[in-house]
Amino acid sequence: MSAFSLTKTRFREGMWEGILTVVEKGAAQPEIAVTLRDLPVRGVTMTEAGEPGRWVVQIPVPIEAVSEGVQTFLIADANANEVLGSFTLIAGEVLGDDIRAEVDLLRAELDMLKRAFRRHCLENG
Predict the structure, then answer these.
(1) DSSP 8-state code for residue 94
(2) How does pLDDT run across 81-107, given as a tens digit for each residue?
(3) What are the pLDDT digits (tens) for 46-90?
(4) Distance (Å, whole) CA 33 – CA 98
(5) What is the pLDDT of residue 95?
(6) pTM score, whole prediction
(7) What are phi and psi of 111, to 5 degrees?
(8) Which domain of life does this protein belong to (predicted)?
(9) Measuring CA to CA, which residue among 8, 9, 20, 19 is closest to residue 80?
């Protein structure tokens, strides 16, 4: 079990943010390493959150990660060589097989049918 807990707080405008908290007393400050396709992500920052044992972690999404397919970012403690968390970006045609995309498509088709049915009822009512 890790000596730290990482909790996502938000993801917007190309910046993933989370709070890293010490779970195990006496744990040294971690060295955060973020990778995408086994390559390091640059620009990662970790700043104190105002309380001892808590840090704000900010991870900028590099432009090369915004592409078709599934992109998974791994967030690790480089000192302990353990994964603290991850997040994923999904874009493009790969979404066609995703159940959420299917539900969205079904909702759009249902809305279209409702409008057509209402129009039919008004014209023949």
Answers:
(1) G
(2) 889 999 999 887 766 666 776 777 788
(3) 999 988 889 999 999 999 999 888 899 999 998 888 899 999 998
(4) 30
(5) 61
(6) 0.74
(7) -60, -40
(8) Bacteria
(9) 20
Match 């709070």 to its residue by tokens: 19
| % pLDDT > 90, the chain | 53
Residue 19: per-residue pLDDT: 96
In this structure, the dihedral spanned by the alpha carbons of residues 23, 44, 72 and 7, taken in order and rounded to 10 degrees, is 30
Residue in the block written with tokens 């908290």: 21
**Among the listed residues 41, 68, 69, the one whose alpha carbon sits nearest the alpha carbon of residue 57:** 41
* 44 C-beta neighbours (distance < 10 Å), count: 16
Q: Looking at residue 79, what DSSP letter applies?
A: T
Give me the CATH topology for the region 4-92.
Answer: Immunoglobulin-like (2.60.40)
Please provide the DSSP assignment of 56-123 as one string: EEEEEPPGGGSSSEEEEEEEEETTTTEEEEEEEEEEGGGGGG-HHHHHHHHHHHHHHHHHHHHHHHHH
Residues in Cβ contact with 99 at an 8 Å cutoff, skipping those fewer than 6 apart: none
